[in-house]
Design goal:
single chain, mainly alpha, 2 domains, 2 strands, about 5% strand, flat
Length: about 260
């Protein structure tokens, strides 16, 4: 976005907060919003806000909007796509082609996955987003690398697929997997079918990540609603107990009121 887009951005933000019946942030917080989202096109930002409102009942935060923005500008996957890639590393036989940030975030949470996959996913997403933001702030380009598994046939299959979608150069791929077959001369330049396949693959990965993120957000929203309902029920019980205590309070000795029904005079 450019400075000229700021009024329209502010209108988008205000509409999102009105929709969720939440007070608008103060000027200092608005500056934080602008700093986080200014690198992205206005239409992409507007679409991310719209997706947030479709998928969540809560007021947006910069992180929730950033998760819904494409990272095609630097070649890095979205947080949930990175999580889906990282999960393959649970199996020692599997070869994984991932970015540096995906590998670092995975190593930070891999022990937690065994006991709490949902908690591990949330921790991974937070760590991954922080690592990507830091790399982008320092101008570090995306770098895909290979983590080899024990299954030799899968090594060739996974690395060859990474070459075909443009995540690895053939030279880097053959350093990792020397058994990788050399491409035919006709394959040195991608055909129209290959380009179309790459576009379809990117769209498929994006739709999978979006669906995964929507399900995760729905689970988080359901947990928040359940917590609110529990707290409301606790308040109701406390109020009922207080009313009961007032109505049936213990009579003090010496009270000269008329005896209550069922009491001896």
């Amino acid at each position: 976005m450019t400075p000229a887009d700021r009024p329209q951005f502010a209108a988008i933000l205000a509409r999102a907060f009105r929709t969720t019946r939440t007070p608008m942030p103060d000027a200092e917080v608005l500056d934080v919003w602008w700093a986080k989202l200014a690198p992205f096109p206005l239409d992409a930002v507007a679409n991310a806000f719209s997706r947030h409102l479709d998928e969540s009942e809560h007021a947006p935060a910069p992180a929730s909007i950033l998760r819904r923005l494409p990272r095609e500008k630097d070649g890095r996957p979205l947080a949930d796509e990175a999580w889906a890639i990282a999960l393959e590393a649970r199996h020692e036989r599997e070869t994984v082609v991932w970015t540096d940030e995906t590998a670092q975030a995975w190593h930070a949470v891999r022990d937690l996955v065994v006991t709490d996959e949902i908690g591990a996913r949330l921790a991974f997403r937070a760590a991954y987003t922080r690592l990507v933001d830091d790399a982008e702030a320092r101008g570090v380009p995306a770098r895909w690398r290979v983590s080899l598994g024990h299954d030799h046939e899968r090594r060739v299959e996974v690395v060859d697929a990474a070459v075909r979608v443009g995540r690895l150069s053939l030279a880097d791929a053959r350093v990792a997997v020397p058994a990788l077959p050399a491409p035919d001369a006709a394959d040195t330049a991608p055909s129209a079918d290959a380009l179309r396949h790459r576009a379809q693959l990117r769209d498929l990965i994006g739709s999978i990540a979006a669906a995964h993120e929507m399900r995760a957000q729905q689970r988080e929203d359901a947990a928040a609603r359940a917590s609110d309902a529990t707290n409301e029920r606790k308040r109701e019980i406390a109020q009922q107990a207080e009313r009961y205590a007032v109505t049936h309070r213990t009579r003090e000795p010496g009270d000269d009121d008329e005896p209550m029904q069922g009491e001896l005079p």
